[in-house]
Specification:
The longest helix has 7 residues. It contains ten helices and 51 strands. Strand 38 and strand 39 form a beta hairpin. By secondary structure, it is mainly β. The chain has a 22-stranded antiparallel β-barrel. Strands 4-11-12-8-9 form a five-stranded mixed β-sheet.
C-alpha cells in the first residue's frame, strides 16, 4: 500500500517502528560513510515484534546492498507465549463448516471439547466455548477484530460476528505472559487481522457444497439423514481513486468488501428411550420380580407386576402418552427418528483504510451477521430464532514524530436475539401445544401458561416443553487509546480501555411446569415409569410469570508497559494493569438476592411437615431477600407498580450496591516477561515470564435473578400427585431461588507462567519447547446454601424436605460464589516449517494435567458444604494432544504444457490430524441416596466397588459391576470426573487443483473429506448407574454416540 514510516536509531544502533499494519515491508538503513542496506519482504504479522538487524558495509551512500528477508524468524523481543495462524492456514486448511475457531486446535495448549468443527456452526452463531487454553475455562477468551471487541460478554463463549476465513488475513493467539496492553478477560487473546485492499484489485468468489448422497452413514444409524449445505460468497478489495484527480498513485484509500452465505438443511438421527406399550398399560411383568412396582400406600408388590388402571392418574397417563410409540429394537433405546433443522446465515462486511498522510491513518470496518433457524426439533414446542449481530469500529493512528504513535479506537458491537416467532407444536409428538388441547386438566399453581409441561422420567428421554423464549438486546461500547513512545532502549506504552455494556434480556422461568419422576421419595413405587403412570412425582416446579432485566455495567482498565532492550541480546517486558469491573446490575432494580446475614430466624415462616406448605401469615415470606440500591427507579414503577409500591417489598432495600454485589477493587495485574537471544544470531531464544489476569464474572449470574421473588414466584413441590400438584388447597409452597450470589464476590484471578526455548532449525523450520503453567482463584460456581446435611431425610422419615431446610420458607437457594480454583501444568511443543510454493507444516503436542473444583461458572458441587470434595480433573482438558496440519503443493508439472501435465500438475494436498486423550466424565445415580434434598438440578455420584471399571467390549465401555448406589444417608466415593472417554482421533484431508484461466484469473477445485477414514471416536456414554444402558456407548436424545461419519465437501473458487 506504499505506507512509509521512518525512525532514528539510538547510540546503540537500536530502533523501533511501532503499530505497523500487517504486510510485507522493505526495510532500509543508511548512515554517512556506509553503503545503504535494504532488507526486502520483511513480514510483519499481527501483534508481533519483528527483529530486523541490518549490517552496514563501509562505502558510499549511493551504493545499495539488497537482501531478501528470511521466511522463518525467531521472536527475540517478547516473553509472551503466542502462535500465529497464517492466511494460508485460514484459507487452505479445510475447516469443517468453515468456522475459524477450529484453527485453534492446531496450537499447543489448546484442548477442544467439540467432536466436530461443524458443531461450532449453530446455536447463537459461532460457539467458541468449546476450547480451553492452558487449563482456563472455555469462556475466558478475548476475541478481537482489528482490535475491536467481538465477544459476547453475556454467555462469554460466543462471537457476535462469525467472520468467514476468507476475510481473515491472519490471526495471532496470545496464550500466556502477554503484555499489559491486553486485559478485559483472563484467558487467551485472539487477535484477528481482517484483510484490506491493496494497490491492485483482488477478488474471490466461491461455493462449498455438501449433500447426503456422498456422505457416510453414522454410527448405529439405519439410514443417512438428510443433508443439504451450501456456503457461497465473494469478496473484493482494491484502491479507491479518481484518475488524475484523487489517489492517483493508489497509495491512500483502500476498500475491502464481501458477503458470505450459509444454507443448511441438516438431518439428525435421534435414538430415544420411551415407554413401551406394556408400560403404558401398566404392565411391568417383563421385569424381574424383584423390580416389579409396589403399591406406594401398602408397600405390597402389584400382583403380576401390573399396575391396575384404577390406580392411574388420568392426567399423568395422558402426559406419558405424549411420548411416541417405540419403533426400534436394539442398543441405545427403542425409538429412532430423524429431524431436519433449517439454518441460514448471512454475513456482510465492509472495510476502508485511509492513509490521510504519513502522520494520520483511519481504518473503519463494519460487519453484519444475520442468523435464522428453527429450534427445539426434539422438544414438544418449536420456535424460530433470529439473531442479527453487528461489529463496527473506527481506528485513528496518529504519528506526530518518528518516536511517538497514538492509536485511538471506538467499537460498537453486539447482537439481538428474537425467539418469539414461529411458536407451534412439534408434529413428531403433538398437534397442539396446550394442556387443554391434549385433554389434560390438572390445576396449575399460577396459571401463567396454558402450555404442556416438561416431563422427566428416570430411565426415559425427557420430553421438554420450553416456555416462551427470550428476546435479547445486547449492546457494547468500547473506547480505547494506546500511546507508544520510544525513549532510548525503552519502548513505552500506556493506554486505557473504557467499556459500557447494555443488555435488555427476558428470562424465562418454568411457567409451563416441570414434573420429575424417579424412584426416590415416600410416594414412590420403586419404578420411575410406574410412578409417572400413578402420577406420583418426586418434585414439581412451576413459576408465576415472565420478567425482563435491563442489565448494565461499566469497565475501566488503564495500563502501562515498558519493553526494555536491556542489552543487545536481552529484552525485558515490564507491565502493570488495573481493572475496575463494576458488578452487573439491572437498571430496573428488579433483581433480588438472598443474603444469609439478612435472614432472621425469628421471622421465619412455619412449614407443614406433612407436605411442605407454608402456614399462612406465619412469618416474613421475603425473609433474607434484599434489593440493591436505595429504591426503585421510575421505569420500574411504570412496568410493575403492583410490586414497586408494596411496602413489604420496599423494606428489602438496605442501601446495598446496585446488583447487590460489592466491587472488588484489588485487581492489580503485574506482568513480566523476558526474551534472551542465546547466540546473538537470532536463531535460539530463551523466553519466559509470568502474569496476573482478571476475568469478569460471567453475566448469567445476574440475568436470571429477575426470576427470584418477589418479582416471580417459583415453587418446587415434593412427593405430590399430578392430579393436584398443589396438594388440593390454596397453599403456598417454598420458593426456589435459582440465582442468588454472595455479597462480596471476588473477581476471578488467573496467574500464568512459562519458560521455553525456541530454535531455528535448518531451512525455514522453527522448533519451540515450553513449560506452561497456570492457576486460578476466585472462580465462580453455584452452591445450594439451603442443602440439608447428609443423611437428614433418612433421620426424619415422613417429614417433608421443606420443613428441614436451614432457611425455612425456601426450597433450594442456589448462590453464586467465588471460591473455585484450578491448577494446570504442561509441556508444549510446536514445530513450524514453511515450504516453497506456499506449503507449510505445523506439529503441536501438549502433555498436561489440569485439576479444578469448579468446572464452569455455574458448576454445582455434589455437596455444597464441601467444594473441595469435587477437586478432580477438569472436564474440558485432555491429557495428551497431538495435532498435525499441513499444506503441500505436489512438486511436479506446476507449469506443464502437455495435456496430461496440465491434468496431473497443479495439485495440492492439505489436512489436519488430531489424536488426543478422551475427556473426563462423571457417572451418577438416580434419586437422592445421600438424603440432602436435591432436585433434578444436581446428581450424586456412585460408589466405586472396584478399580476394574472398564467394560468387557467396545460398546459396553463401563463395567456395571464396578459401580453401586451409595448406602442411604451417604455420598459415593467416586471422585468428580474420575473416568475418561476413549481415545479420540480425527483425520481431515483435502485435495486441491488449480486451473489458470488467464494471467490474473484462476480457478481452484477442492474436495474435502472430514473424518477421512470414517473412524469412530466415541463421545457419549450412558452414565446413570442402574439404567438399562448404563456404561454403553449410546446417544442420548439428539446427542450422538460417536463423531460424525466421513463427510465430503466439494468447493469451487474463482480468484483474480
Amino acid at each position: 500500500t506504499h505506507l512509509t514510516r521512518s525512525a532514528p536509531s539510538n547510540d546503540n544502533g537500536n530502533y523501533v517502528i511501532s503499530n505497523l499494519p500487517i504486510g510485507f515491508y522493505d526495510v532500509s538503513a543508511a548512515a554517512p560513510g556506509f553503503k545503504k542496506a535494504t532488507l526486502t519482504r520483511v513480514e510483519v504479522t499481527v501483534d508481533s515484534q519483528v527483529p530486523v538487524n541490518i549490517k552496514l558495509d563501509v562505502g558510499s551512500l549511493n551504493e545499495t546492498v539488497t537482501v531478501q528477508a528470511d521466511v522463518a524468524r525467531v521472536e527475540t523481543s517478547s516473553g509472551a507465549v503466542s502462535s500465529l495462524i497464517t492466511g494460508t492456514q485460514a484459507s487452505q486448511i479445510q475447516l469443517n463448516g468453515r468456522n475459524f475457531p477450529q484453527l485453534l486446535q492446531l496450537l499447543p495448549g489448546v484442548s477442544t471439547t467439540f467432536a466436530s468443527g461443524f458443531s461450532l456452526f449453530g446455536g447463537y452463531g459461532v460457539n467458541n466455548s468449546a476450547q480451553s487454553i492452558n487449563g482456563s475455562r472455555t469462556d475466558t477468551f478475548s476475541w478481537n477484530l482489528d482490535g475491536a471487541d467481538n465477544k459476547d460478554n453475556g454467555g462469554g463463549g460466543n462471537n457476535f460476528i462469525n467472520i468467514n476465513p476468507d476475510a481473515l488475513a491472519e490471526f495471532r493467539v496470545l496464550t500466556a505472559n502477554y503484555g499489559a496492553e491486553y486485559g478485559q478477560n483472563a484467558g487467551a487473546v485472539v487477535n484477528m487481522a481482517v484483510k484490506s485492499g491493496t494497490t491492485d484489485f483482488h477478488g474471490l468468489a466461491y461455493e462449498y457444497f455438501r449433500n447426503d448422497a456422498i456422505q457416510a452413514r453414522a454410527f448405529n444409524a439405519p439410514t443417512i439423514p438428510e443433508l443439504r449445505y451450501n456456503n457461497f460468497g465473494w469478496n473484493l478489495g482494491g484502491p479507491i481513486f479518481i484518475p488524475k484527480v484523487f489517489n492517483k498513485d493508489r497509495s491512500k484509500l483502500f476498500f475491502f468488501i464481501g458477503e458470505d452465505f450459509k444454507r443448511l438443511r441438516q438431518g439428525a438421527g435421534n435414538t430415544w428411550t420411551v415407554p413401551t406399550a406394556a408400560q403404558r398399560n401398566g404392565d411391568f411383568s417383563a421385569l424381574p420380580v424383584s423390580q416389579w412396582p409396589k403399591n406406594p400406600t401398602t408397600g405390597a408388590v402389584y400382583p403380576n407386576g401390573i399396575v391396575p388402571q384404577s390406580a392411574w392418574s388420568p392426567n399423568s397417563a395422558k402426559l406419558l402418552d405424549l411420548y411416541p410409540v417405540p419403533n426400534f429394537t436394539g442398543s441405545g433405546g427403542n425409538l429412532v427418528f430423524n429431524t431436519v433443522q433449517p439454518l441460514n446465515t448471512n454475513e456482510y462486511l465492509f472495510k476502508v483504510d485511509y492513509n490521510i498522510s504519513s502522520k494520520n491513518q483511519i481504518d473503519v470496518h463494519y460487519f453484519r451477521d444475520y442468523y435464522t433457524s428453527t429450534q427445539n426439533l426434539t422438544q414438544l414446542i418449536l420456535y424460530d430464532r433470529n439473531i442479527p449481530g453487528t461489529n463496527f469500529s473506527t481506528q485513528w493512528t496518529f504519528v506526530p514524530n518518528p518516536t511517538t504513535v497514538n492509536v485511538a479506537q471506538f467499537t460498537f458491537t453486539g447482537n439481538v436475539i428474537f425467539e418469539r416467532s414461529g411458536i407451534g407444536p412439534n408434529p413428531i409428538f403433538i398437534s397442539n401445544i396446550t394442556r387443554a388441547g391434549n385433554g389434560i386438566t390438572y390445576p396449575t399453581l399460577y396459571n401463567a401458561s396454558p402450555d404442556l409441561p416438561t416431563i422427566q422420567v428416570a430411565g426415559l428421554t425427557s420430553l421438554t416443553s420450553t416456555a416462551l423464549n427470550f428476546n435479547n438486546f445486547n449492546r457494547i461500547f468500547d473506547w480505547k487509546d494506546d500511546l507508544s513512545k520510544i525513549i532510548g532502549n525503552h519502548t513505552l506504552k500506556t493506554g486505557i480501555l473504557i467499556m459500557r455494556s447494555r443488555k435488555n434480556q427476558d428470562n424465562v422461568p418454568p411457567i409451563n411446569g416441570t414434573f420429575v419422576f424417579n424412584t426416590s421419595g415416600p410416594n414412590s413405587s420403586g419404578n420411575a415409569v410406574a410412578n409417572a403412570l400413578l402420577g406420583n412425582f418426586n418434585n414439581y416446579t412451576e413459576a408465576s410469570t415472565l420478567r425482563q432485566g435491563w442489565y448494565r455495567f461499566s469497565q475501566v482498565e488503564p495500563y502501562i508497559q515498558d519493553d526494555w532492550k536491556a542489552t543487545s541480546r536481552l529484552t525485558l517486558n515490564l507491565g502493570f494493569r488495573w481493572a475496575y469491573m463494576q458488578p452487573q446490575y439491572s437498571a430496573l432494580g428488579n433483581t433480588t438476592a438472598f443474603l444469609p446475614q439478612y435472614f432472621n430466624p425469628a421471622q421465619a415462616v412455619r412449614v407443614l411437615p406433612s407436605n411442605g406448605a407454608i402456614v399462612p401469615n406465619s412469618g416474613n415470606i421475603n425473609n433474607g431477600l434484599v434489593l440493591g440500591g436505595e429504591g426503585f427507579p421510575p421505569q420500574a414503577q411504570l412496568r410493575f407498580p403492583d410490586i414497586t409500591y408494596d411496602p413489604t417489598v420496599i423494606a428489602l432495600f438496605h442501601n446495598l450496591p446496585k446488583g447487590t454485589a460489592n466491587t472488588d477493587w484489588a485487581t492489580w495485574q503485574p506482568r513480566f516477561g523476558f526474551a534472551y537471544d542465546l547466540t546473538g544470531k537470532q536463531s535460539t531464544v530463551l523466553r519466559g515470564g509470568f502474569g496476573v489476569f482478571y476475568e469478569r464474572v460471567e453475566g448469567n449470574f445476574i440475568f436470571s435473578a429477575v426470576n427470584n421473588p418477589p418479582f416471580i414466584q417459583q415453587q418446587t413441590i415434593y412427593y405430590g400427585n399430578v392430579e393436584n400438584p398443589g396438594g388440593g388447597t390454596l397453599q403456598n409452597f417454598p420458593n426456589t431461588i435459582n440465582n442468588s450470589h454472595y455479597l462480596d464476590m471476588k473477581v476471578p484471578r488467573v496467574l500464568n507462567w512459562s519458560m521455553g526455548i525456541e530454535q531455528k532449525l535448518s531451512g525455514s523450520s522453527i522448533l519451540t519447547v515450553s513449560y506452561v503453567g497456570s492457576s486460578a482463584a476466585n472462580l465462580s460456581y453455584q452452591d445450594n446454601i439451603n442443602q440439608l446435611p447428609v443423611g437428614t431425610l433418612q433421620a426424619h422419615p415422613g417429614v417433608n424436605v421443606a420443613a428441614l431446610r436451614p432457611y425455612v420458607g425456601y426450597a433450594e437457594i442456589y448462590e453464586y460464589n467465588t471460591g473455585g480454583n484450578f491448577i494446570y501444568n504442561s509441556l508444549q511443543v510446536q514445530l513450524r516449517k514453511q515450504f516453497h510454493q506456499g506449503g507449510l507444516l505445523n506439529v503441536a503436542y501438549t502433555w498436561s494435567s489440569a485439576r479444578t473444583d469448579a468446572n464452569a461458572y455455574n458448576y454445582q458441587p455434589m455437596d455444597s458444604y464441601n467444594l473441595r470434595g469435587d477437586w478432580g480433573p477438569s472436564s474440558y482438558n485432555r491429557k495428551q494432544i497431538l495435532s498435525v496440519s499441513y499444506v503441500y503443493p505436489l512438486p511436479f508439472w506446476l507449469n506443464g504444457q502437455t495435456w496430461y501435465q496440465k491434468v496431473l500438475g497443479g495439485w495440492q494436498i492439505s489436512g489436519v490430524t488430531v489424536i488426543q486423550s478422551g475427556l473426563p466424565f462423571n457417572t451418577i445415580v438416580q434419586g437422592d441416596p445421600a438424603g440432602i434434598g436435591i432436585s433434578a438440578n444436581l446428581n450424586e455420584r456412585p460408589v466405586l466397588l472396584n478399580t476394574n471399571w472398564r467394560g468387557p467390549s467396545r460398546t459396553q465401555y463401563l463395567n456395571p459391576a464396578a459401580f453401586g448406589v451409595p448406602a442411604p444417608g451417604t455420598f459415593g466415593n467416586l471422585g468428580a470426573y474420575a473416568l475418561y472417554y476413549p481415545l479420540f482421533n480425527n483425520w481431515d484431508v483435502a485435495v486441491t487443483k488449480s486451473f489458470p484461466i488467464t494471467e490474473r484469473v484462476s480457478a481452484r477445485f477442492r474436495a474435502e473429506m472430514f473424518n477421512f477414514p470414517n473412524h469412530l471416536s466415541y463421545v457419549n456414554i450412558s452414565n446413570t448407574v442402574g439404567s438399562a444402558n448404563f456404561g454403553q456407548i449410546t446417544g442420548s436424545g439428539s446427542t450422538p454416540a460417536a463423531t460424525d461419519p466421513r463427510t465430503i465437501q466439494l468447493a469451487l473458487r474463482l480468484n483474480f
